[in-house]
Design brief:
The chain is an all-alpha fold and 178 residues long. The chain is extended and about 65 Å long. Helices cover 83% and strands 0% of the residues. The chain is built from five helices and no strands. It has helices at residues 3-23, 38-75, 80-113, 116-127, 129-170. The protein starts with a helix and ends in an 8-residue tail after the last helix. Helix 1 (3-23) packs antiparallel against helix 2 (38-75). It has one domain (3-127).
């Protein structure tokens, strides 16, 4: 795969992650509530930085930058250190700036759903040894959980959907095929 194909694959991955975020509940407007206080927004931004920023960056970088840097290094043998330096000093700072509106979206969602006291308590938990461990371990736990769900759910949901179709037909509903 050439550098252009790797870049295109990376951009496609970035678009997919952004679309997943946009389709999530955090991208949608919450039920109208009172505007969060400045302190709540400050706490919510700290929470978003701590909880969401690293995970989201890892997802996006994994989908976009890994193929790009791999292809750049392959196209520029002996210049791997230059590619790494450009990644560290050019791409990452620009990427963090570009992601700021996404992190702000998370902060707005947290501030709309949690009080200042709740946000402070959540942050205090993440400052604790157990909270720090949770932040460190959660991506792996979620990845293993998603893999398990993908393996189990098709078999588990087949009978559920079959029963639902049968119940619909029992009520005289027309069940579309496909």
């Amino acid at each position: 795969m050439g550098v252009r194909k790797g870049t295109a694959a990376g951009m496609a991955g970035l678009c997919m992650v952004v679309m997943m975020w946009a389709g999530s509940g955090l991208a949608q407007s919450p039920t109208p509530m009172a505007a969060p206080t400045p302190k709540a927004l400050e706490l919510a931004r700290a929470l978003a930085d701590r909880v969401d920023a690293d995970d989201l960056m890892q997802q996006v970088l994994g989908a976009t930058v890994q193929p790009l840097t791999f292809n750049l290094k392959a196209a520029n043998p002996g210049r791997e250190a230059d590619v790494d330096a450009l990644f560290e000093h050019t791409l990452l700072p620009d990427f963090r700036k570009a992601m700021a509106p996404v992190i702000d979206g998370y902060a707005q969602a947290y501030a709309a759903r949690f009080t200042e006291a709740e946000l402070a308590a959540i942050l205090a938990f993440y400052d604790s040894p157990a909270g720090a461990k949770m932040l460190k371990e959660m991506p792996g736990v979620q990845q293993r959980g998603r893999a398990r769900a993908q393996a189990v759910l098709p078999q588990a949901l087949g009978p559920v959907l079959g029963n639902f179709v049968t119940a619909c037909k029992g009520k005289g509903l027309v069940v579309p095929q496909g």
